[in-house]
Design brief:
Elements lengths: L13 E8 L3 H13 L3 E3 L14 E3 L5 E4 L2 E3 L2 E10 L4 E5 L6 E6 L6 E13 L2 E13 L5 E2 L2 H10 L18 E11 L8 E6 L2 E6 L3 H8 L6 E11 L1 E11 L31 E13 L7 E7 L2 E7 L5 H11 L8 E9 L6 E3 L7 E3 L2
Parallel strand pairs: 3-10, 11-12, 14-16
Antiparallel strand pairs: 1-10, 2-4, 4-8, 5-6, 6-9, 7-8, 9-10, 12-13, 12-15, 13-14, 15-16, 17-18, 17-20, 18-19, 20-21, 20-22
């Protein structure tokens, strides 16, 4: 009976057979038996083991990866498993977040298809004796039309285009541009019926809002939470801020892709104006905000809470997608505020729904911290 391990994968590989060598036939046999007793490599979409084969060529496409064992105990002996990837620069390897006994190994997709390979070496050493077994997979990585961009590149390009999507939406042939990008989840909207309408991701100072009806199923299937790093693929649109309707959303290792921790924007040297557009949807903390007025009377409608900060108007814009519970709690809190007297620090993300910067209080009442 082969062990069954949790996973998800979808490769396509020509698996060439099992070979072995070493100083001890005993331990060569041990390693060979170990390699044959466990699902070394799994298919990311089906969770099934990828069997070795000398005749079948498989394909990797649509941003699929393979899940590979990183540790293994067989017959009470701890075996070492090492992986050799070729071409080395075409692979990203990281610990799989849903099962730390496995690596997630993802090919780098681009406009050009290419052939690649993976070699697994199962080895064991005891005293002066050692043994090993090798497994080899070869596969074809399909091309993709998805354009990969960092969040900084997306937002910088948008500003360079005069706050228009331009070639972020259509290419030179007039075809829709599909973009892939990565970031860490900083906050989200959750409506009363548990529809996740909006999710914010960030990489350092730069951010993006994911927004679509289909986001709910993607969110729940992936069991995501604030702090997770994700790779997302979709088309961009504009509704005050740049939004992406995600077609794919998956958890990734932030360190493997050099994704920076989200920064809370420092406004010490910045004006509260349109120059912040490059930081749209990014985390912000704005102190010394003096309450002016608020309109949070209607349920299921956007609400505006007005403040003054150093003579500048600051709007806390409560998108109704915050949900009924959060909106009612904010309403009760604002009812205790005294105009031109109550001073708070506001935390949230930067919005531009009416062309001017606003703070979206994605943390509910925790977005408003009373001054001491």
């Amino acid at each position: 009976m082969k062990k069954k391990l949790l996973s998800l994968i979808i490769p396509a590989l020509l698996l060439t057979g099992l070979t072995s060598c070493g100083n001890s036939k005993k331990y060569d046999a041990l390693c060979a038996a170990a390699a044959d007793s466990a699902p070394i490599l799994l298919n990311s979409s089906t969770g099934k083991e990828i069997q070795t084969s000398e005749t079948r060529v498989r394909e990797l496409k649509d941003y699929n990866s393979v899940l590979a064992l990183n540790s293994y105990t067989f017959q009470e002996k701890e075996l070492e498993i090492t992986w050799e990837l070729a071409p080395k620069e075409k692979w990203v390897q990281s610990i799989y977040s849903l099962d730390e006994t496995r690596y997630k190994i993802t090919p780098i997709y681009g406009k050009e298809a290419y052939d690649a390979s993976i070699k697994c070496i199962v080895s064991y050493k005891e005293g002066n004796d050692s043994g090993k077994a090798e497994l080899n997979w070869k596969f074809h990585v399909e091309s993709t039309e998805t354009v990969e961009m960092t969040l900084e590149q997306i937002n910088t390009k948008y500003v360079e285009n005069g706050n228009q999507l331009g070639d972020l939406a259509k290419n030179e042939e007039g075809k829709d541009v599909v973009i892939g990008t990565r970031g860490i989840i900083t906050g989200h909207f959750a409506e009363p019926d548990d529809v996740y309408a909006g999710v914010f991701i960030q990489d350092g100072d730069y951010a993006l809002q994911l927004y679509a009806g289909s986001l709910s199923s993607l969110w729940k299937e992936g069991n995501f939470k604030v702090g997770d790093c994700v790779f997302v693929v979709g088309k961009l649109s504009i509704y005050g801020v740049i939004e992406m309707a995600p077609e794919m959303l998956e958890s990734i290792d932030a360190t493997a892709y050099n994704i920076k921790a989200p920064n809370t924007l420092d406004l010490s040297n910045k004006e509260w104006n349109g120059s912040l557009m490059v930081n749209q949807s990014a985390l912000i903390s704005l102190d010394n905000c003096v309450y002016s007025s608020g309109n949070v009377e209607k349920e299921g409608a956007h609400a505006s809470i007005n403040f003054k900060r150093n003579g500048t108007d600051v709007l806390a814009y409560c998108n109704y997608h915050l949900g009924k519970t959060a909106m009612l709690a904010i309403k009760d809190l604002v009812a205790t505020y005294v105009a031109n007297e109550t001073t708070v620090t506001i935390k949230g993300v930067i919005g531009f729904y009416n062309g001017t910067p606003q703070i979206v209080p994605v943390f509910g009442t925790e977005s408003f911290i009373a001054a001491k």
